[in-house]
Design a protein that fits this description.
The structure is a single chain. This protein is α/β, with parallel strands linked by helices. The protein is built from six helices and 14 strands. A seven-stranded mixed β-sheet has the order 6-5-4-3-2-1-14, covered by helices on one side. Strands 7-8-9-10-11-12-13 form a seven-stranded mixed β-sheet. A hairpin with a 2-residue loop joins strand 9 and strand 10. Helix 5 runs parallel beside helix 6. The N and C termini lie close together (6 Å).
Amino acid sequence: MSITLTWTGHATWLIDTGSGRLLVDPFFDECPTSSMRAQDVACDAILVTHGHFDHVADLVAIAKRTQAKVFCNWEIAQWLGKQGVENVQPMNLGGRAAVPGGTAQMEIAHHSSSLPDGTYGGNPAGWLLDVGGVRAYFAGDTALFSEMERIGRPRGGRGLDVAVLPIGDLFTMGPDDAVEATRLLKPRVVLPSHYGTWPPIAQDAGAWAARIHEAKLATAHVPTPGGSVTIG
């Protein structure tokens, strides 16, 4: 069994689980590096890590058009209700829910969260997915934290197949801490995210991947926007 991860730019990902398509943090039309427009996105469920504009800018429009269920924290769910989005599953840290192809657990992240109208966005989060027979971790916008070792710990004899980590620095962890995060998580494959969108978060992802390989921590892939990686 396998899943295919497509990076559309910034921190937005599409995940084909074989039983449906998941969308993480929809930011398309105002993202300068996006490979897609919001109106062209098809998905069966939407996972939201936190409320910042660069993660929810196209959330309402896509949720209304596709009727895909949105999985998010309580505060974002309440905000979505006020925007007329009804198919929402509110959650909180540690919670697990069924998604197309398996389950999604809301994990901790160390960041901030406010919504585009300035209201409180609740706890920021990451997502630990067990979908399509693959264990995948999307760290979201976060600093390095020691509990990444717990997140990567094998469950049922299986460790992480893939981890998606921010490397942009300034607003999230940077390349150095993302190397250490890979050391703690111990995934088979690691992918960079949340970088290169604007000059303040420009990074050499190829150099970062080379460090991962040199330390023999994982296999690092660096897709370009619109590029896909199949994990299985």
